[in-house]
Amino acid sequence: MEPIEQWHKRELIRAYAYFMLGKTKFAAKDYDNAMIDLNKAIQMNPELIYAYYGRGIAKSELGDYNGAIADYDRYIELNSGDAEAYYRRGQAKKALGQHDAAQADFQKAKALDPNVGE
Predict the structure, then answer these.
(1) DSSP 33-62
(2) How many whole angstroms separate alpha carbon 48 and alpha carbon 44?
(3) CA quadruple 13, 21, 84, 49: dihedral, nearest 10
(4) Across residues 64-84, what is the average pLDDT?
(5) For residue 90, which of 56, 62, 114, 58 has the smallest C-alpha distance?
(6) What pLDDT does residue 69 have?
(7) pLDDT at residue 23 above 60?
(8) What own/partner pairs with CB < 8 Å and gap ≥ 24 does 3-7 have?
(9) Which residues lie below 8 Å from residue 64, measured CB to CB, with a gap of 6+?
(10) Within a 13 Å sphere around the CA of 25, how many CA atoms are in the beta-carbon half?
(11) 64: DSSP letter
């Protein structure tokens, strides 16, 4: 048995708490502050894959498409079966004028889930 105060100090618990804070701020469209919390979550637990995904979306919303692609790349590296991630990465590449690379991502997304992007 561990006291709750001690449990809250665990690095993985704190990382998840920052992830949830970032997710809440993201839902409120407060992308800058969401990224601060998601950065902390990733720093504390680099394997917290959904933090990369959320941060990628936030970066896209803020126009940082290169940063978004890097986060989607990391997320896909850890979870290659997520059609939505390929679709979102394709959108970021399209915004940068990388049409062939975007098409490849869109095709991969459709292969994983024919309904993605609709």
Answers:
(1) HHHHHHHHHHHH-TT-HHHHHHHHHHHHHT
(2) 9
(3) -30
(4) 96
(5) 56
(6) 98
(7) yes
(8) none
(9) none
(10) 19
(11) -
**41 within 8 A of 32, measured Cβ to Cβ:** no
Least reliable range by pLDDT among 7-11, 60-64, 87-91, 107-111: 7-11
pLDDT reported for residue 56: 96
Q: Which of 46, 40, 97, 43 is nearest to 74 (CA)?
A: 46
pTM: 0.87
Task: Tell me how crowded residue 84 is: count the other CB atoms within 10 A of its CB.
Answer: 15
SS3 content of the chain, % helix, strand, coil (to 5): 75, 0, 25
Structural tokens at position 54 = 């959320």
The residue written with tokens 């970066």 in the block is 59
Residue 8 has a pLDDT of: 54
Query: Which tops the pLDDT comparison, 12 or 50?
Result: 50
